[in-house]
Design brief:
It is built from seven helices and six strands, in the order H-E-E-E-H-E-H-H-E-H-H-E-H. The strands form two sheets. The protein has a four-stranded mixed beta sheet with strand order 3-2-1-4, with helices on both faces. Strands 5-6 form a two-stranded parallel ribbon. Strand 2 and strand 3 form a beta hairpin. The N terminus is likely disordered.
């Protein structure tokens, strides 16, 4: 990749930080696609640090957000407030994913609110029934939690497994309760 191409890609990465009932969130997008997000952040300063780590070339305030991004932010905020929101209609850029990762992400996105699947079940849906650990790796590196609801993927016999939000399994439990998957 030439230096010019590298600079062009960097210029396209924009971010936004916003407060929700699940803590501060960040949303990073490139062109017209969400690129990464974080949540469960304790302060605005922590959110800004996340955006800096994502190498955003531009951090936009509410008034400067493109309409599409403003819609994503509103929906994420409403989801965090407990509204029944899904994100299936948000198109993702999967050009950097392997075919297996695409199948896993698609399967995960189709897990209904209030339901969970085991890593093994998701591997079966992805067409690789013996790839539960590989599914775990895809979920562990998911850059778009909530949009790709990796919290709905659990271990065998319903054990929660892990979760990468800052409060870990506490947040995974909170999300599953918010959606009605746990009592």
């Amino acid at each position: 990749m030439s230096q010019g191409q590298l600079e062009r890609t960097t210029e396209e990465i924009c971010g936004h930080a916003f407060a929700t009932q699940l803590g501060w969130m960040t949303l990073v997008w490139r062109d017209q696609f969400p690129y990464s997000m974080s949540f469960d952040l304790p302060t605005q300063a922590a959110a800004i640090q996340c955006l800096a780590a994502a190498k955003c070339s531009d951090v936009l305030g509410d008034a400067d957000l493109p309409r599409r991004v403003r819609t994503w932010v509103r929906r994420l905020t409403n989801y965090a407030a407990g509204q029944k929101i899904d994100f299936l209609d948000i198109e993702l850029d999967d050009s950097e994913c392997t075919e297996f990762q695409r199948r896993v992400i698609a399967g995960c996105r189709n897990i209904p609110r209030g339901k969970t699947l085991s890593y093994r079940e998701l591997a079966e849906i992805a067409g690789s029934p013996n790839a539960a650990r590989a599914v775990g790796n895809v979920m562990a590196t998911n850059p778009l939690p909530l949009i790709v609801p990796c919290h709905r993927v659990v271990g065998a016999a319903g054990s929660l497994g892990g979760y990468s939000a800052s409060s870990g399994l506490t947040m995974k439990t909170r999300l599953l309760k918010l959606e009605g998957a746990l009592g």
